[in-house]
């Protein structure tokens, strides 16, 4: 479930919607477990007790392959307004900005970048290395800004070293949804290992015409055959080994 996820039902209803969605997804998986898997939807994360209960239910009872998390607790990401006077201005209403909020967030994925940097600076990536986090759309602008983020220690904003910040950037997995160009892949390879890059189409959320235009870029990226195979299938099988026999 994409943004805003079950939180669209409000604090009181998000838990019920998450449970309904997860039970349905499990039923689809059970009809053809060799073909389908699913990431469990989460209720409003500001209700910690409900979120932890749903994670336990999804993992222990339903056997979910992972958890789908939004970039802000209540599921509705913070969006920047395109203001020339202040880069920190916020949109109070959609009409405050000349272009739709969804258009800006869909293209830039700034919230993904902010969340990733928060996980790095809070040392959660390093503390919980057994938790494998896949960032959508090649990590938003994280690969582009990683070296800039690495300078935060040099200006006294974190105790983490440049090397630690860059190393932690490489702990993430990155999917290539609408981000499969050779330029993007080469940038990702500067920060992470080849086994942390995964193909993704962004279907059904992106229009078929967009997917058909961008997905072939992976095959046209002039990658070594071993990398092409790894990105398209091999790396995903390492993350989800139950599909390995198929």
TrEMBL record:
Keywords: Decarboxylase, Lyase, Metal-binding, Zinc. It catalyses: 6-methylsalicylate + H(+) = 3-methylphenol + CO2. Its EC number is 4.1.1.52. Pfam families: Amidohydro_2. The keyword Lyase applies. One of its GO terms (biological process) is secondary metabolic process. One of its GO terms (molecular function) is metal ion binding. One of its GO terms (cellular component) is cytosol. InterPro entries: ACMSD, Amidohydro-rel, Metal_Hydrolase. It comes from the Eukaryota. Residues 17-241 form the Amidohydrolase-related domain. Belongs to the metallo-dependent hydrolases superfamily. ACMSD family. This is 6-methylsalicylate decarboxylase. It comes from Cladophialophora psammophila CBS 110553.
